[in-house]
Backbone:
C-alpha cells in the first residue's frame, strides 16, 4: 500500500519550469530519498508535499486522503506532515523543552512526560531540556528539530537535507539514528539530498530528478547497477563508461569481451561498469587478458583509487580507467597489471 501518491505534478515560476509532470508513489513505512543536482526541483517538490507551495496542476493524496487536486487544497497545518529543514529552524527564544513541546495540545505533567519521552527517543539527555538552541551542537539541534516534528505524530516526515551542515562522522551517525527512529515509529519518510552516498544508504526507494523531471525511481541497488542514462550513472557514483559492440549478450570493448545485461544486438552502444567491478593483479610476462599500467594512485586509507592506463584498446588505445582496491594491497605507480571484470556490464540507453 502506498502512503503518498503524486500524480502529474507541474509547477512553473514565471517562465521557469520547476516541476514537469512528476508522478511518484511512496510505500507506507518506507524511506524514499529524492536526489538530484541543485536546481533539479527536489526541494520544490518537498515543499509541495508539505503544503508550503501549490502546483499549477496535478494531484496529491496521503493515506487515501486527497490533499490537493483541481478542486481543493488542504493547507499545510491540516496535513499532519512533519518537516525538518536543513538548519533545524529552532525558536531561539525557547528552551529545548519548549521547542519540542511547541504545538502539543496536552498541558501539565502529561506534556512534560511526552517531552521527556521524545528527548529520550532522539538520544538527548534529560538535563538538556532547559538549554537554549545556541548552547547546542549542530547534531543536537537537528535532534531537537526531529523530536519537535515527531511530537505532532505525523503521517509523513519530510527531511530537507537535515545532515548537510554536520561533519562527516556525525553525519553518518545521525543518518543511522534517524533511519532507526523512523522505522521504530513506523513513520513514512521522504529525504531530499544532493549527497549520493547518503541517498544510497538511507533509502528504501530512490528517486532521481533532473531539470524538474523524475528521471528514474526504484530500489537504490537497482538504480546504482542499472541507471537509465549516462547522467544518472555518473550522478550516483563513479562509473567506467566505454563504447562497445553488443552481440548475443556480450560486449566487445577495450577490456575485451564482457557479459552484458542486454540480449539484443547493436553495432555500437555505451556500456557501464562500476570501478569496484574491475579487479587487478600484478601482470606476469606473457599472461593473457587485458593489460595496463598504474599511472595514478589516490590512497584513502582502507580503500585506494588507482588510475590504470590500458596498453591496448580496440576503440581507444591508452584509455584510462578508475579501479578501486584495498588500500594496503594497492600496487605502486608504474606497476604492470592485468584487469578482469566481475559481473555484467550495463548497457545504457541512447
Residues:
Amino acid at each position: 500500500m502506498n502512503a503518498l501518491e503524486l500524480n502529474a505534478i507541474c509547477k512553473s515560476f514565471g517562465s521557469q519550469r520547476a516541476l514537469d509532470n512528476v508522478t511518484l508513489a511512496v510505500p507506507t513505512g518506507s524511506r524514499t530519498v529524492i536526489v538530484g543536482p541543485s536546481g533539479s526541483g527536489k526541494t520544490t517538490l518537498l515543499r509541495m508535499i508539505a503544503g508550503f507551495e501549490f502546483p499549477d496542476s496535478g494531484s496529491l493524496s496521503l493515506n487515501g486522503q486527497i490533499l490537493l487536486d483541481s478542486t481543493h487544497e488542504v493547507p499545510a497545518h491540516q496535513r499532519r506532515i512533519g518537516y525538518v529543514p536543513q538548519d533545524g529552524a529552532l525558536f531561539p527564544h525557547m528552551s529545548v523543552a519548549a521547542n519540542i513541546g511547541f504545538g502539543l495540545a496536552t498541558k501539565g505533567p502529561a506534556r512534560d512526560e511526552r517531552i521527556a519521552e521524545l528527548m529520550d527517543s532522539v538520544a538527548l539527555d534529560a538535563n538538556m531540556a532547559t538549554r537554549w538552541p545556541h548552547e547546542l551542537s549542530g547534531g543536537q539541534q537537528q535532534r531537537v528539530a526531529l523530536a519537535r516534528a515527531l511530537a505532532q505524530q505525523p503521517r509523513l516526515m519530510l527531511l530537507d537535507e537535515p545532515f548537510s551542515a554536520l561533519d562527516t562522522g556525525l553525519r553518518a551517525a545521525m543518518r543511522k539514528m534517524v533511519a532507526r527512529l523512523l522505522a521504530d515509529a513506523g513513520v513514512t519518510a521522504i529525504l531530499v539530498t544532493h549527497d549520493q552516498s547518503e541517498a544510497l544508504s538511507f533509502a528504501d526507494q530512490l528517486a532521481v530528478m533532473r531539470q524538474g523531471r523524475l528521471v528514474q525511481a526504484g530500489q537504490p541497488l537497482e538504480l546504482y547497477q542499472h541507471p537509465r542514462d549516462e547522467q544518472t550513472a555518473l550522478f550516483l557514483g563513479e562509473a567506467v563508461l566505454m563504447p562497445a559492440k553488443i552481440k548475443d549478450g556480450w560486449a566487445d570493448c577495450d577490456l575485451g569481451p564482457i557479459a552484458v545485461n542486454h540480449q539484443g544486438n547493436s553495432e555500437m552502444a555505451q556500456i557501464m561498469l562500476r570501478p569496484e567491478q574491475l579487479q587487478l593483479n600484478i601482470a606476469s610476462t606473457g599472461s593473457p587478458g587485458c593489460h595496463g599500467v598504474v599511472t595514478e594512485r589516490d590512497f584513502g586509507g582502507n580503500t585506494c583509487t588507482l588510475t590504470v592506463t590500458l596498453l591496448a584498446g580496440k576503440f581507444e588505445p591508452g584509455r584510462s580507467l578508475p579501479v578501486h582496491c584495498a588500500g594496503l594491497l594497492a600496487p605502486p605507480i608504474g606497476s604492470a597489471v592485468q584487469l578482469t571484470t566481475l559481473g555484467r556490464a550495463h548497457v545504457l540507453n541512447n
About this structure: The chain has two domains: 2-231, 240-347. The mean pLDDT is 88.
